[in-house]
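Example 4.3 (complexes with small molecules)
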Amino acid sequence: MQDVSSLVEQAREGRPRAVARLISLVEGASPQLREVMAALAPFTGRAYVVGITGSPGVGKSTSTSALVSAYRRTGKRVGVLAVDPSSPFSGGALLGDRVRMAEHASDPGVYIRSMATRGHLGGLAWAAPQAIRVLDAAGCDVVLVETVGVGQSEVDIASQADTSVVLLAPGMGDGIQAAKAGILEIGDVYVVNKADRDGADATARELNHMLGLGEAREPGDWRPPIVKTVAARGEGVDEVVAALEKHRAWMDEHGVLADRRVARAAHEIETIAVTALRARMLDVRGDHRVAALAARVVEGELSPYQAADDVLSRL
Ligand code: GDP
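Answer. The structure with guanosine-5'-diphosphate bound is encoded below.
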């Protein structure tokens, strides 16, 4: 056990080892987290959190790295959280050494961390926001949350971000996949990467059509831009940053950022509470009284609702 206040102090100074240690406490669902999060709370809420989602192979890792470079050129401190909802906890090794990120490894203004969260009680919904808080309190101006894989978990992660970037690439049947995964609802900024390949324009057009961007909107509504990039060569990446900044300014102007953050905090509270409740349920499940209730449900003496009320009253 390490002294939490000194760890927090060191993390606030941006010391990588302390930041790493704190995120490991998150991954390990350490009982010390309560104290850590309480100590960090006054220093959070400053970072701009950007979610980056898209099917495997579209260029998320390459784009994230290029975005890091772009933000570094403007002197911003950047945190990268690469989240893999499909693998078990990795202790930060799985994605941390990804080749594309290697160029930033020695930059003290960049903090890169991966988290794999399958099998975690309460899963990612619970862990990722806490890791974001750590990076935020450690002084990152921007936190890029890159997710691996497509699906509901990815959509959930997008809901943790201030701005969500959805990445597509030509010729991957991405449009259809994106629609299936529901990511067409979550994008604030769309990027068609691999614009050096045939079909990028067609993908952008298809996307434009699917998003209904041609249709009239209320004045003041956000119109998600579609930016074409060649992330591998850093082309178009400054335009992505410009689109992000524009979205951020729009959110500020319309009170959307504050609303999103409140909604996120509400979700976070709920997730922590439900996770705590479930943990207590698991304790109770081993209780012979639950076994007795279950037997009575089987016998038809009690409805499962009555039995559940009985269990809840004991939590
Ligand atoms: P991820 O799985 O979404 O993180 O995708 P990666 O960033 O690992 O990229 C997948 C592959 O696409 C790698 O081989 C990259 O070098 C390549 N790639 C990334 N961006 C571009 C691009 O703009 N053009 C081309 N032609 N290839 C790219």
